[in-house]
Design goal:
Order of helices and strands: EHEHEHEHEHEHHHEEE
Structural class: alpha/beta
Radius of gyration: 17 Å
Shape: globular
Distance between the termini: 55 Å
Number of helices: 8
């Protein structure tokens, strides 16, 4: 049997890169996709040097033609980790820039749709697993998060609907919804490079989640026996009881 293959989107940093490392350690051949070719090449070199199988493929998940071309090169896909995503801004609905909402919808929603549609035939052949990395924003709203919350709600609905539509077929659909995760880029991107605002998100929180924490969760979920489907797993740090209730130390 061919080596199990996992395709990870947004693999150039953060949760995507951590997931690639952990799935590679679990024995998967990992296909690393992201827009930043230099980052995924460096990660592929790192994993290859460690004795793992890793293939980089520069890809913009919002470009459907590119996604279809990529899918045509994949002979086998056992796991698809839809991780590419992100937030832009914290403006209220009344004054938010529609361009930000559109950009978030394109990557968080249509990116998931594009990869899932394109790779579903391969996943079905392999009796595989679709993973959607959503967010606790997919389940509860908060002020200043309208565009991101709307996009992640849509990603949640994709996972929920796909699971219903594939019932009886040998494909699992798993949704992982992380809460507060401290990575190098998420908050910094949201605040358009403002390091002070990005740091304030985690101020006083002794132990926010890390990218490795979420990667560990993804790896655990996809390596359950084939008949076990983890429909929805919400992961928060102990200090976070909800999107708007976080314990912060002085």
């Amino acid at each position: 049997m061919s080596t199990r293959t996992a395709v990870i989107t947004g693999a150039s940093s953060g949760i995507g890169a951590a997931t690639a490392r952990q799935l590679a350690a679990a024995g998967y051949r990992v296909v690393l996709t992201a827009r930043r070719a230099d980052r995924i090449q460096a990660l592929a070199d790192e994993l290859t040097a460690a004795g793992h199988q890793a293939v980089p493929h520069a890809l913009d998940v919002t470009d459907r033609a590119a996604v279809d071309a990529f899918a045509a090169t994949q002979d086998r896909v056992d796991v698809l980790v839809n991780n590419a995503g992100g937030a832009l801004g914290t403006d209220p609905v009344a004054t938010a820039d529609p361009a930000d909402w559109r950009a978030m919808y394109e990557v968080n929603v249509l990116g998931v749709l594009n990869l899932t549609q394109a790779l579903l035939p391969r996943l079905t052949e392999a009796e595989g697993t679709v993973v959607v990395l959503s967010s606790t924003a997919a389940l509860a709203t908060y002020e200043g998060g309208g565009g991101y919350v709307a996009a992640k709600h849509a990603a949640h609905v994709i996972a929920e609907t796909l699971r219903l539509e594939l019932c009886g077929r040998p494909v699992r659909v798993i949704e992982i919804a992380p809460g507060m995760v401290k990575t190098d880029e998420f908050a910094l991107t949201r605040f358009r490079g403002d390091e002070d605002k990005a740091a304030a998100v985690y101020a006083g929180v002794a132990e926010p989640l890390t990218a490795d924490d979420i990667a560990d969760t993804v790896t655990w979920a996809v390596t359950r026996p084939p008949h076990v489907n983890v429909d929805l797993l919400v992961v928060r740090p102990r200090a976070q009881a909800s999107n708007y209730k976080v314990h912060r130390e002085a």
